[in-house]
Sequence to fold (193 residues):
Amino acid sequence: GSRGGACRVRCRRRSARADGGFAARLRVKLAPLRVDIRDVASGPSISQVLVESLRSNLRGPRETSTIKLEVQAAVAPDREQRAWMLVALAARMRQEGRTDLARVAVDGAVALDGGPAPTRAARTCMVSIHADDGDFDAAVKLGEELLAEGADPYLLKAMARVYWGLWRKTKDEAWHDRWWRIHVRLHESAPAG
Fold:
């Protein structure tokens, strides 16, 4: 039975150790490697199947890994989708504290010119990146340009953070007043509940 086989292996090992030729005496038989190399008559290629599988997996849970975002940005079928994926990637890079890579993703999204919405989102992300890096002057300049075009909750949050940072840095009440106005607008635009 199986016990006899185990005993034989142990016995061989003991005898092999005794005379010093353990490696030479231990014989392992491997099955030959067989690979199916026949052509598939019809159907999608392996790369198409992998891309579709990746896309379906990426549409699943809300929390997507950084590498999945990178791949999704690379394989998105049109410029607008690629721009949105680069914005999502920039936001993730920001969360991970990798503002240098976040800047590259934002620059890519803006350069793609995928439309006004993803471009605005990328520029809003850049406001936050400037604030992360402590460059409040650049953040306020870009953020106020965007505010002149309209406000959305993401921009309001970013600008509240910028104005708060400027107030803490300078203790100038003008920044505190701007922060307060943005703070009020942000809470007025928030859904009740």
The two ends are 70 Å apart (CA to CA). Residues 1-17, 22-26 have pLDDT under 50 and may be disordered.
